[in-house]
Amino acid sequence: MMFEGVGIITFAVSGLIEAARKKLDFVGMAMVAALTAFGGGTLRDILLDRRPFFWVQNVNWIYGILGLCVFAMLFLRGRHLEFTERAILWPDAIGLGIFTAGGTQVALAEHMPAIVAVILGVLTAVFGGVLRDIVVNQIPRAFSDHQPYSVVGFTGAWLVLLGDSLNWPSLLTLGVSAGFIVALRMIAVYRGWRLPAWKI
Amino acid sequence: MMFEGVGIITFAVSGLIEAARKKLDFVGMAMVAALTAFGGGTLRDILLDRRPFFWVQNVNWIYGILGLCVFAMLFLRGRHLEFTERAILWPDAIGLGIFTAGGTQVALAEHMPAIVAVILGVLTAVFGGVLRDIVVNQIPRAFSDHQPYSVVGFTGAWLVLLGDSLNWPSLLTLGVSAGFIVALRMIAVYRGWRLPAWKI
Amino acid sequence: MMFEGVGIITFAVSGLIEAARKKLDFVGMAMVAALTAFGGGTLRDILLDRRPFFWVQNVNWIYGILGLCVFAMLFLRGRHLEFTERAILWPDAIGLGIFTAGGTQVALAEHMPAIVAVILGVLTAVFGGVLRDIVVNQIPRAFSDHQPYSVVGFTGAWLVLLGDSLNWPSLLTLGVSAGFIVALRMIAVYRGWRLPAWKI
User: Global pTM?
Assistant: First the structure.
């Protein structure tokens, strides 16, 4: 729950930064922040035909994002952007781990086949950022920056399947899978790993 | 009902204008017009898991939009575009009022919490235009033009909550809230109000 | 079933080509290919509130697309792109025919009104490509290239309505309608038919 919050706030902040870069207004900032934070989980729930969404069940997330936007409006300045982007590398990895592992568990609980559960887990973590980039009119970074991000989530999500088949307690599975994803992601960042390039 | 029609047709026309600007073909024009007119309400209904959509329940709206596109194809010329855009300022404000207030009522009837109902009301009115702008490959105007549009809807939608909590008749609530939004929007237009700018 | 496969693979390949053009990475390629192949049918099923999606019911399609992406990564080179694009003209027409006719039948089976069933049929075939183009940040070709594509599907979809009202066997209706669409589409391609242009 606390870790989920880390993910939501980080994703919202990454939306804010993008909105600031594109000089969106307050409405655009709030919408892009919310889309980035809630978009992935909402898409997963629409695909699974699952209600209520987590931001309906716990509306404090909505107020939190609105508060964050007001705060950013008042205090965020241009010189903060780059610093913030570096500062959220760790929280962003935590978000990737928690959302992917948690999303995979949710999909498994709805009796999805293994590969579908894994993909829905990855979508939960990645699609908020994809929607953010589509809205601000650029090709999604997740599809084009050759960084191991979705791929790390994809790899770790299979640990959820493993834990599930071994009947591990749900929280243990979540912790192990998310921890693996966070670690692998940070190793990829610090080692500068790259996805293999097209030979076109 | 009649007012709802004003909103649908206005939103369709704003889609047509955008399609004409981008030199889309007839298919693109019809799709963008329909997306602008139906997109917000359809998104709301998907989020609420509510069927049938209003354009399924009353297919005359579909035929109406197709007719509008044929008409535009035959008679709309470049010199009409700017004139039309000014001419739809009032109808567009009416659309904003009716769709926001009506959308909020629909969400309340589905037992959504207050803030969710308000946001779904605003989405009903605003998201058609957002989808229109995404499809024609530009950053949504609603997010970047610093005009009080969504914000006006957001403010007025709380009147629906007020009316609901005071047990006003549904039509009275709709009228008061929508009227307030239309008035506030037109004041904002004529006074040239702007959203506060980023200090970046 | 076999013909459906022709459509899915062709649409995936058209996604691959676009991803290669935009220099997306492997993740982007797989996502765009899957979005192009599955997007139209998935949107149709979301609008109809219909589950499970066909790619959940038969996960081999997912593995197929992943395999296709690995294959493309290894063997697709720049000089193949134009050749591939010409080579998929026929398969693409088959995909248009099968998806439109099949999608219309699915919508009819869910008791949609005639015009809605026709539009959902066309969306099934066309919206994968629309999503592909939105994601790679260009105006959808289906809306702007003045080629008779959606219009051909729209025309042929009414044959499904005809067959349905005459109580033809379902497979006969599918064959006649899809065949009509494939033929009309290929005639349009070889004769170079164009949609009427705006006079703006």
Answer: 0.95
DSSP B23: T
pLDDT digits 0-9 by tens, B2-21? 678 888 999 999 999 999 88
Contact C135 A140 (CB under 8 A): yes
Burial classification of residue C130, based on how many CB atoms lie within 10 Å of its CB (0-12 exposed, 13-18 middle, 19 or more buried)? buried
Residues of C in contact with B56 (CB under 8 A): 112-113, 116
Report residues of chain B scoring pLDDT below 70.
1-2, 199-200
Q: For chain A, what are the domain ranges?
A: 2-191
| Closest residue by Cα to residue B18 from B3, B42, B39, B1 | B39
Residue A200: its pLDDT value, please? 60
Q: Hey, what are C198's tokens?
A: 């705006």
Token digits for B145?
């033009």
Q: In terms of Cα–Cα distance, which of B136, B66, B134, B72 is closest to C154?
A: B66
Degrees, nearest 5: CA angle C134-C139-C142: 95
Contact A196, A155 (CB under 8 A): no
Mutate to test the interface with C, among A108, A115, A136, A198 (most CBs of C within 10 A): A198
**What's the token pair of residue B119?**
């946001």
